[in-house]
Write a structure and sequence with these properties.
With 332 residues, this protein is α/β, with parallel strands linked by helices. It is built from 14 helices and ten strands.
Length: 332
């Protein structure tokens, strides 16, 4: 699959953009584990134009995490164009426009998936951003605003006409948020539309290597994004790439997984500070499948998620690695 001149190979597996998740450290680890392309956290056009330091830091891309995309969101043409030009100075391989974020503070203000209620403005923004920058521009969006307005098949053609070079589709409406099951049938319909010539990337509920292969086979998409299933489990990309190549699951030991968890903690603290770095990493610790299903683990999990210092958190992980994981008793 190619986005412009960027060749991601056959059946690429990509790290989806996620706020408070896809920071530089996590992107780097996911690339090392096998992700073919990574996306930044959501970058607010308004904040970028106003040179907010925390937003400017989101533009930093290391050489070893490339190819990488910067994803921007906003609700008017001028700020999105200016934000795209600023983002281009960080030399991303791709600038992606977020028309898919469903959370109230974004969509409720007309940005992200809120644009699904204002298609003319969505198309104006897309055309303007494509014209404003020299790097490939892509879009990520959803099936529609709600069950009664699943417009993605027609919308995909309109976005393609604006000049984008790939389209990512999350198989839910905005109203669904992240509930229910992702509906890939319309993603497949977009891909099989003979008028579509750009790559179509599917997203939503791809949680295992087996499902990844199944969805590639069933829907014929050009690429697949993995989002929530990677939180606390960056090794999922290695599992998926190995399974696609061999038809077998690789053996990734608990020690190898724990090493990645520890690395995320250390790099999060070093990048921000001890207090905020630990707060940031808690989402990964809460979601990681490494500790799921262990009998009587709840008190340890609570202690782990309440730890306030590096030494406290690492001491708990030492206990888990030494005294629990080797003898784990999994609930049936």
């Amino acid at each position: 699959m190619k986005i412009g001149n960027i060749d991601l190979g056959e059946r690429p597996v990509m790290l989806a953009p996620m706020e408070d998740v896809t920071d530089q450290s996590f992107r780097q680890i996911c690339r090392e584990q096998g992700a073919d392309m990574v996306y930044t956290e959501f970058v607010s056009a308004d904040a970028l134009v106003r040179s907010i330091n925390s937003t400017l830091r989101k533009l930093v891309i290391s050489t070893t995490e490339r190819p990488a995309a910067i994803q921007i969101y906003g609700r008017d043409v001028d700020s999105m164009v200016e934000a795209a030009r600023i983002a281009q100075e960080a030399h991303p391989e791709v600038i992606d426009i977020n028309f898919g974020c469903p959370v109230k503070k974004v969509a409720g203000k007309g940005a992200g998936a809120g644009m699904l209620r204002n298609i003319p403005l969505m198309l104006d923004i897309t055309r303007a951003v494509v014209k404003a920058v020299d790097v490939p521009v892509t879009v990520k969006t959803r099936l529609g605003w709600d069950h009664n307005s699943k417009i993605i098949v027609e919308l995909a053609e309109q976005l393609q006409d604006c000049g984008i070079q790939a389209l990512s589709i999350h198989g839910r409406t905005r109203s669904q948020l992240y509930s229910g099951e992702a509906d890939w049938t319309l993603i497949g319909e977009v891909k099989n539309n003979p008028r579509m010539t750009i790559p179509i990337i599917g997203n939503g509920d791809v949680t295992t290597p087996q499902r990844l292969v199944e969805y590639y086979d069933r829907y014929g998409v050009d690429g697949i994004m993995v989002g929530r299933a990677s939180i606390g489990a960056p090794w999922i990309f290695g599992e998926m790439k190995h399974y696609m190549a061999t038809g077998e699951m690789p053996v990734i030991t608990d020690a190898e997984k724990m090493a990645l968890v520890r690395r995320q903690i250390e790099e999060s603290i070093d990048r921000i500070d001890e207090y905020r770095g630990i707060l940031h990493i808690r989402r990964h610790l809460a979601a990681t499948p490494l500790f799921k299903g262990i009998r009587d683990f709840r008190p340890t999990r609570i202690a782990m998620l309440q730890a306030a210092t590096r030494s406290e958190l690492l001491n708990i992980l030492n206990h888990v690695e030494r005294d629990i994981l080797p003898y784990r008793d999994i609930k049936q």
